[in-house]
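Hello,

Our lab assistant flagged a job as stuck in the queue for most of the afternoon. It eventually completed. Since we weren't sure the result was trustworthy after the delay, we are filing this so someone can double-check. Below is the sequence as submitted and the structure that was eventually returned. Let us know if re-running is recommended.
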Amino acid sequence: MLSFNTDDLFSFASAFQYSAPLRGVSFFPQGKQFLFNALVQKLESNKGLYLNHYSVASIIRNKTIELEVKAPDGSISKASGHHLIISTKSDKWSLIDSKHKHFNFSDGFRPVKTVYYPFTIFLGVAEKGLPQQLARHIAVVPDTEKDLYDHNLIILETGPPDKDKPLSKSKNSMTATVYLPDIEANWTREALGQEAFSILDKLDVFFPFLKDNIDLCDIDKSIDISLNYRKVLSPKYKVRNAFFTSFAAKSHKTRFKNVFLTGASLLTDAGFDAEIISGKNAALQVLQKGD
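-- returned structure --
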C-alpha cells in the first residue's frame, strides 16, 4: 500500500484531498506554475542545476549513468551520476533500452492508458457579463442525467477581479476546459472548432450575458495551444487497480537498478500532485540506496 508517513513526503491522503477536480483530470495552470517555480528555486538553492530548452542527446547506462546534453546553441555537455530519474512522458527511454516496450514487468498486466485530454478555449471578457459572486473555479454540468465525460463537463477558471476599476470598465480572463477522448477524429482542427462553439453555446444557458461581453476570443489560437499542451498536460489516465490494495498506483522502479521513473501516470488518481509525489518517491529511493 502507499505510505501514509508524512516525514519529508506528502501523504497520498493529502494529495487526494487537495488534488484537482475529478482526481487526475486536470489542474489549474497558476497552481502548477507556482509549485514548479518553488521546486526550481529549492533545487538551485541547494546547488542543483536546472537546464531549460536543453535536450538529451545520448544516455549510456552501466554501473554509472553518462549523459550527453545538447544546449540551444548546439554545443554538447557531458554529465554522469550513479542514478537516473526519467519522466514517463520522456521520449528518451529508447536511448536507454530500445529493445523493450514496457518500463517494468507490471506494465504488461496493468498498462496505463490515456483516455481523455483537456481542450481549453481562452477568453477575454468584460466583468459586467459575469455574475458578481462567481467563484474563481466553476464546474458546469449541462445535463445531470448524462455521464460527466460524455461532453457533459466544462470547468471554468477566471482571473482575480480588477477592484481598482468600476464594474463597467473592468476586464477579466476566462478559460473553459472540456475533456475529449484520445481519439484522432476528436482532435482535428475542424472537430476542435466545432467543440469550441459548442462550449460557448452550452455556457450561454448558464451565463446569458457572457457571449455579448466577450472582448477576446481567438479559437484558432486556443486550438494551437491545446494541441501543443497535449505533450505536457496531465491527461486523464486509466489503469487497472492493484489486486491486493485496490490502488491505481504503479511502481517507479524499472528493470535497471539505477534507473527510476517519475510522472503523474504512476499515481493516476492524484492529478498534478502526482508529478511531485512520484518524483519525491524516486528521489527518496535513490537516497535510501546510498551508493
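-- support follow-up --
The delay was a queue issue, not a problem with the job. The result is valid. The CA atoms of residues 129 and 208 lie 8 Å apart. Residues 189-206 form the longest helix (18 residues).
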